[in-house]
Amino acid sequence: MVSMKNLRAHLLELLRTEHAHPLFDKAAQDLPEPLRGRRPEGFPHSAWELIEHMRIAQWDIIEYVLNPKHVSPDFPDGYWPKSAAPADDAAWEKSLNDFRADAARLVGLVKDESNDLVAPIAFARNATFLRQILMTADHNAYHIGQLVTVRRLLGAWKS
After folding, report:
1. What is the CATH number of the domain that holds 78?
2. CA-based nearest residue to 62, from 5, 139, 136, 145
3. pTM higher than 0.90 for the full model?
4. What is the domain extent for residue 114?
5. Nearest-angstrom CA–CA distance, 51 and 37
């Protein structure tokens, strides 16, 4: 039987350690500005679209269990940016930093032993902290893989 302490350790490793895919920072780092909004031929998203989508979804998944007044964006349009490219370098950096900040919030939820990871959240239908953490890790892993694919197709990935 896995103790809550061991479960927390496993979750922290899942969120902070490179496994079958690179971590977010490695996948997003040093992407040249002209490539950020470029969709590779035959691929539906640019790096910007993927990063913004991950940022928005991660924020929403966390807020869903922390804020009883939270209203999720409209699905699916509210989870994707309006344009394929960021408006400028500041928008790109803000998205990266906001993603990192929410990823840190997720780690904080796991570390905070006052959070019962498996207890239902009273105001969030069908949700527990554990469910939201696993859903976020799964969602991010999928899109990090896509981000690496975009970079490979654009010739901007150094493995």
Report:
1. 1.20.120.450
2. 136
3. yes
4. 4-153
5. 11
